[in-house]
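Sequence design from tokenized structure. All designs in this work follow the same two-part layout: the structure record, then the generated sequence. An example of the structure record is given first.
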């Protein structure tokens, strides 16, 4: 069977929905097909590790993309991209021809080399449903990974009365992102909330003993076993580049796109978590795994597919909630850079600036709201900035 669409989107995530909306703003009628490996039409991912655990209504999850005159092919995985025929084919042999194609295929969780069936890699709605069902019956949950997903899931489970142990090799929660003292504060804060925090721990094996899962954990003090009823992991994703690679499109930790979001072919675009792009304010190619990028880039890709010529120069921000704490961050919030902290109240409210060569490369707004635009403008400035120039700046 062969189907033709004027616009074909591979992927059913937040980027795909934004692309449909961008397309429809420019072309209200052209046919749009969306192919997603997931069984659900596009929905918001952030509530999976936050709002849904705090009673946010299920109905608010959905984008309702299918109401925009789009045909969704759900539960279908695209397995090949043929650029000379301008077609893709899926896992049941259907061929979809396109005039314009968007690859909004995101990433796949990195897996541990053990515990195949016993670790839940948290990424999508089916993972949320599986975890929700599991924790109905299970009390002690081990969370592997102290980054973005691990820290959110640990907080969500603790708020829901679960006994949580979070294990990660770094010294503190989100240590790759936050300055050391803030990350250490988070370790203590999680402990106050009842979470068992185990920094400096690498999980090296997983077995079973009676009905319990048993993690083998290495730390500076040696090896030990930790029991849990269920194990969740959030240890990063790898961008899904296989289709692009196989078709000969440029790939470099993501599908490389130009400023118009073309992926090395005039009729093929990529956006969202999978896309690597040049950002002028940072003067570097980046790939961003966050909502603002997915939504803004997705919409722009849709508009450009429908004939506009917009440049993607947006510097995306991201946000997270950890118990009662919340933050927004923009630019390179990389703990390896030098940082200047400007606290109104230590670790409760303040701004952290990340500097490199006397330029502000990133800004962390810790319980400070409404300052993203000002932070973005600061990152675009050439400087030079000294630490004292930044106190009270935002
Ligand atoms: C639990 C969770 C919480 C988050 N919370 C926040 C937050 O608080 N703040 C924030 O800024 N960001 C957050 N993010 C990040 C944000 O949700 C992502 O950046 C965004 O969802 C990326 O969207 P995407 O569509 O580019 O990729 P994905 O979400 O990965 O979607 C890719 C889609 O493509 C499909 N697909 C892949 N390969 C194929 C194929 N070959 N054939 C067909 N379909 C395919 C997948 O099934 C999926 O539907 C969170 C992410 C997660 C997982």
């Amino acid at each position: 069977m062969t189907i033709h669409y004027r616009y074909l989107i591979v992927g059913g995530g937040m980027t795909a929905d934004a692309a449909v909306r961008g397309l429809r703003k420019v072309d209200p009628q052209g046919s749009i097909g969306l192919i997603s490996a997931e069984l659900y039409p596009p929905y918001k991912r952030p509530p999976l590790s936050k709002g849904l655990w705090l009673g946010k209504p299920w109905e608010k999850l959905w984008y309702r993309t299918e109401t925009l005159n789009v045909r969704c092919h759900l539960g279908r995985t695209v397995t090949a991209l043929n650029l000379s025929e301008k077609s893709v084919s899926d896992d049941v042999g259907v061929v979809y021809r396109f005039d314009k194609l968007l690859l909004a295929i995101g990433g796949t969780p990195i897996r541990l080399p053990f515990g195949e069936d016993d670790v839940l890699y948290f990424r999508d709605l089916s993972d949320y449903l599986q975890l929700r069902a599991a924790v109905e019956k299970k009390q002690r949950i081990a969370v592997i990974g102290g980054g973005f997903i691990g820290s959110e899931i640990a907080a969500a489970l603790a708020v829901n009365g679960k006994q949580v142990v979070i294990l990660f090799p770094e010294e503190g929660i989100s240590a790759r992102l936050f300055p050391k003292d803030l990350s250490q504060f988070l370790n203590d804060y999680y402990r106050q909330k009842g979470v068992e925090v185990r920094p400096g721990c690498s999980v090296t094996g997983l077995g079973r003993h009676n009905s319990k899962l048993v993690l083998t954990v290495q730390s500076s003090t040696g090896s030990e076993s930790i029991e849990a009823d269920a194990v969740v992991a959030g240890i990063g994703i790898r961008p899904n580049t296989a289709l692009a690679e196989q078709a000969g499109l440029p790939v470099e930790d993501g599908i490389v796109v130009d400023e118009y979001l073309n992926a090395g072919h005039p009729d093929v675009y990529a956006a969202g978590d999978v896309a690597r792009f040049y950002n002028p304010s940072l003067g570097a190619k980046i790939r961003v795994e966050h909502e603002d990028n997915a939504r803004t880039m997705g919409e722009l890709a849709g508009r450009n597919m429908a004939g506009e010529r917009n440049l993607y120069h947006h510097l995306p921000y991201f946000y997270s909630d950890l118990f009662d704490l919340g933050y927004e961050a923009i630019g390179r919030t990389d703990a390896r850079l030098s940082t200047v902290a400007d606290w109104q109240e230590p670790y409760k409210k303040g701004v952290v600036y990340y500097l490199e060569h006397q330029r502000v490369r990133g800004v962390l707004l810790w319980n400070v709201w409404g300052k993203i635009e000002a932070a973005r403008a600061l990152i675009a400035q050439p400087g030079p900035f000294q630490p004292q120039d930044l106190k009270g700046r935002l």
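Residues 324-390 form a domain with the Enolase-like; domain 1 fold (CATH 3.30.390.30). We note this feature because it recurs in several other targets discussed in the main text.
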